Amino acid sequence: MRVLVTGGAGYIGSHTVIQLIAAGQDVLIVDSFANAKPTVISRLEAITGKPLLVYAFDLRDTDKTEDLFAREQIDAVIHFAGHKAVGESVQKPLEYYENNLDSTLVLAGAMARHAVTKLVFSSSATVYGANAPVPMSEDLPTSATNPYGWTKVMIEQILRDVAVAQPEWRIALLRYFNPVGAHASGTIGEDPSDIPNNLVPYLSQVAVGRREKLQIFGDDYDTPDGTPLRDYIHVEDLAAGHIAALSKLATTESPVSTWNLGTGVGTSVLDVLHAFERAVGRALPYEIVGRRAGDIAASYADPHRAHAELGWTATRTIDDMCADSWRWQSQNPNGYPDA
Ligand SMILES: NC(=O)c1ccc[n+]([C@@H]2O[C@H](COP(=O)([O-])OP(=O)(O)OC[C@H]3O[C@@H](n4cnc5c(N)ncnc54)[C@H](O)[C@@H]3O)[C@@H](O)[C@H]2O)c1
To answer: CA quadruple 244, 245, 246, 250: dihedral positive or negative?
Structure first.
């Protein structure tokens, strides 16, 4: 099968490209490199031993996207491309709505015109909103607390509407929990372009000396140690979930399927800190500060549907995730080089 991976130079896309190639799929990438460095491509080629076909353009460019589908045989699409920073989306809502919605509309339009009807979409646990009970199951109502989250809610709805109008489509909405970790080689990983928003990238930069200390936002939540619980999932397990979902689209009768990709385990901020300290081999500086607006006490998946329907389960532990994140960060203290 020939799979177009949008955002394939990004964090989750790059790890998924490796697993697609290992599974025998033929891959092509489109990425604007708005949030990726070209170096990732040569590293992917080194890991896979294959030259990669990469189109560097913005999916919102209707002509280029149309031209890509006219020129290339494409059997399925995995759509990672989009902006993803929650805080930035609050500051720049129009940019988020425009990029995430328009790129999806242009992509889906080209797919429809060229009869490409298999699509795996990167959704997020953020669609469960602020007050969802844990563990979170796919049947909960969706909502959001910030523009980024609303783009995911809206795109899910747009894709459901497409599938009503054209029931031959097979669409997977994958709701990721908190992806962390890196490829075992330590040569590809998460490389935030700004101050990291997420715990593990931030801790990685503290450990490597780029940030002074970790701030923990609140230790008075109703959780075992008072710090918030999240469902951290290794990016390699997440990538494997995409391979499983793609293969399921070949046989399922449902035009749209929704699957949580999480471990089902809630891990506290302090637990992650201690796991990261074990990976690094020393204590890391931190301070407890006040709660951060918008944070919730607990978010973790009910992963049973993905297990039952995809035969997929996350297997890597929080220690595996921290060890792999640390290998990537310590080998690449400043992330990917520019060249
Ligand atoms: N990382 C997470 O914590 C997380 C959690 C839930 C969902 N997701 C979703 O998963 C997807 C991938 O996330 P990631 O962490 O790999 O992000 P990422 O920023 O590393 O990767 C996204 C890639 O898309 C590219 N891109 C952005 N807009 C584009 C456009 N208009 N045209 C072409 N390319 C474009 C960027 O250059 C980048 O390489 C995103 O849709 C994100 O919202 C991520």
So the answer is: positive
Among 313, 299, 303, 306, CA closest to 257: 306
Average pLDDT, stretch 78-97?
96
8 A C-beta contact, residue 119 and residue 246: no
Write out the catalytic residue numbers: 148
Q: From the alpha carbon of 190, which atom of ligand 1 is closest?
A: 20
Query: What is the pLDDT, as a whole number, of residue 294?
Result: 83
Atom 43, ligand 1: which residue's CA is nearest?
84
Distance CA 318, CA 270 (A): 12
Give the global pTM.
0.98
- Is a pLDDT exceeding 90 seen at residue 187? yes
C-alpha 84 – ligand 1 centre gap (Å): 6
For residue 339, with 0-12 CB atoms within 10 Å meaning exposed, 13-18 middle and 19 or more buried, which class applies?
exposed
90/30 Cα distance (integer angstroms): 27
According to DSSP, residue 143 is labeled: B
Q: Which domains does the chain have, with CATH numbers?
A: 2-182+232-263+301-314 (3.40.50.720)
